Amino acid sequence: xxxxxxxxxxxLPILTLGMIITALAVHFFLIPSKLILGSITGLSIxxxxxxxxxxxxxxxxxxxxxxxxxxxxxxxxxxxxxxxTALILxxxxxxxxxxxxVKQSLMQDQWLDLLCFVLLVSFAQTILFRRNAxxxxxxxxxxxxxxxxxxxxxxxxxxxxAIICCTAIFVYDARTVIIGLIxxxxxxxxxxxxxxxxxxxKRVCVISKNYQSIRKFIIEDLNRGAxxxxxxxxxxxxxxxxVESLMTRNEFSYLMEFIKKEQIDVFIxxxxxxxxxxxxxxxxxxxxxxALLENK
Length: 296
Description:
single chain; 296 residues; alpha+beta; Alpha-Beta Plaits; four-stranded antiparallel sheet; 4 strands; elongated
């Protein structure tokens, strides 16, 4: 079994969850409020109003074309995962139409519908992008732009989405187009914030006489790398050592708990890092580190 298939099977529950969130957002907020945002669904709504071709069929056909592009231009794993996510959206929408039909705006306000839709879809996009997949449609175009032109995913989504929004002028008034453009811009902002939140790590710098104990805990208990720098105090010119490490937020809390438990005198600075280039292990420890479970 190829690595792409293994990755797809492993991520199947997460991919399904992401598309359930997307389908709920489209069914309850996008379609009934007649919002035309920067998405293939939005473009399909415009074509549906012009031609009366059923919406699920339009979404399926346009996504099918883009899926072929994703397979050849982005990669096999992304293509396989996105084929699944894109193909299950139409059946999910059809099921929701039968089980829970919605004839009018759920929030009775286009702006509230816009905010709810963008919040849910941005969260779903983040989940899928992190698993090397997408919701299909315009996300594929954004991923292609991101790969070949090295533009951030959030900006790629905004640019391609803005172009789609402008098609709404053929069936709606200028107000609807402007709302759609604002929604697309908010989608890019929320996507960027969610991506940063999911990907962020802590860069921790610790100065202590017991630096060896801290180094050992980071390497052996947290399974993270550590760098030790010799430094000299600016006040008393004492020779000291600083331990620096990158870790997740949970691991940072474990480090602080360890320092408190061992009553180590330290000076710590910690900052959020949103991007890491190079090797950083993704496997996190399960449960508390052994050093925190042992009696002192």
